[in-house]
Amino acid sequence: MNAASTTVTLSATCRNCSAPTNGALFCPSCGKIQPLPRGADYFSFLGLPQKLTLDLDTLEQRFHSLSWKLHPDHFVRATEEEKQLSLDLSSQLNDAYRTLRDPVARVEYLLSLSGMRKEGQKKQQAPPELLEEVFELNESLDELREARDSGGSPEQMQGLRAKLESAQHKFESSLADVDQELAGVGKDWDAAIDSAADEAAGKKLMERMNEVLNRRSYIRNLVNGVRQELAVT
Ligand SMILES: [Zn+2]
Question: Which residues keep their CB under 5 angstroms from ion ligand 1?
Answer without folding.
Answer: 14, 16-17, 19, 27, 29-30
